[in-house]
Specification:
Length: 277
């Protein structure tokens, strides 16, 4: 990449964006759902730190706690903080490796729910400057945050509750145990590669066309869950892309289903590989 910049506050972020010189600007969360070409990216990559990792209670009324959270905070740290406060609502982020900004951008979630369920508003900066957007203004859907084009989320406000905390902790623990048993969490991956088609599972389709365990260099379609491509040693981004392409082509040829990628692919790729079509 040409330029990687860590920004600590809104002022620094605005100044980095102003100095981009018309080159592409990418925002990196924790990189847990990204595929970047081996040759890197053109332009500037921004990573939020400093004050973007803070959280504070804005108000508490009638059992609802409004929590303001910086977009650079890791989900795992946020979950530890809300557990200490005894707040329920963010259980769907348990086990999702990433930042709050990435979780909003992807409307991350699990079988327990999704970010959209507890999001009140977001703050951020886009081509028109800084603004606050209410949840109702975001066309959020399954793994889709509905952010305006080139919008960087700097903070989110969540509506959490004191009621239901114990129950959510128990549901979350059971859910994490299920994930551990069914997903290849012991090896690096870029998360679920494809969205689940309505009424089906991407992993089931990839397994049905015989690709479980298929290898391209250091990348393999996981034996444990075929919607994960794992790095079994020295995988390049090109190896991962070759697995994605093969899974997409073979599932379409044999089942007529065109899988939709969940992983975000940035940068320039040979037209024969990306975009999938
Ligand atoms: C083992 C594993 C398990 C996973 N399980 C789940 C799961 O159960 N559910 C689920 O939903 N996801 C899952 N994921 C995928 C991933 O963790 C989530 O999508 C996560 O929300 C991505 O967050 P991130 O901070 O890593 O974002 P990145 O991967 O860094 O970025 C993802 C996208 O969000 C954008 N983005 C990041 N931060 C911001 C910001 N501040 N403003 C605007 N755009 C931003 C990026 O530009 C990029 O387009 C899993 C991944 C792995 C590796």
């Amino acid at each position: 990449m040409e330029r990687l910049v860590f920004v600590d506050d809104a002022e620094e972020l605005a100044s980095v964006l102003a100095s981009g010189g018309g080159r592409p600007i990418h925002v990196l969360g924790n990189g847990s759902n990204l595929l970047i070409p081996d040759a890197g990216l053109r332009g500037t990559v921004v990573k939020l730190g400093g004050t973007f990792r803070e959280s504070r209670i804005l108000s508490e009324e009638a059992g609802t706690v409004r929590l303001h959270v910086g977009a650079g905070l890791l989900n795992a740290v946020l979950l530890a903080r809300v557990a200490k406060l005894g707040l329920a609502g963010l259980g769907p982020l348990a086990g999702v490796p990433g930042t709050v900004g990435g979780a909003v951008a992807m409307n991350a979630g699990t079988a327990l729910g999704e970010v959209a369920d507890v999001l009140e508003s977001i703050e951020g900066i886009g081509p028109g400057g800084t603004c606050t957007l209410a949840r109702a203004e975001l066309p959020m859907s399954y793994r889709e945050g509905g952010l305006p084009d080139r919008f960087i989320v700097t903070a989110a406000v969540f509506r959490l509750t004191r009621a239901g905390f114990e129950e959510e902790q128990a549901r979350t623990a059971a859910h994490l145990a299920r994930r551990k048993a069914t997903q290849p969490l012991d090896l690096p991956s870029c998360g679920s590669v494809f969205r689940n088609p309505v009424g089906d599972h991407a992993g089931r389709l990839i397994e049905a066309v015989g690709l479980k365990g298929h290898r391209e260099g250091g990348a393999a379609i996981s034996e444990r869950h075929a919607n994960f491509i794992v790095n079994v040693g020295g995988a390049t981004a090109a190896n991962v892309m070759a697995c994605i392409r093969l899974a997409f082509d073979r599932v379409r040829a044999e089942t007529a289903v065109s899988l939709v990628p969940e992983v975000h692919v940035l940068g320039e790729w040979p037209r024969t590989e990306w975009p999938l079509s």
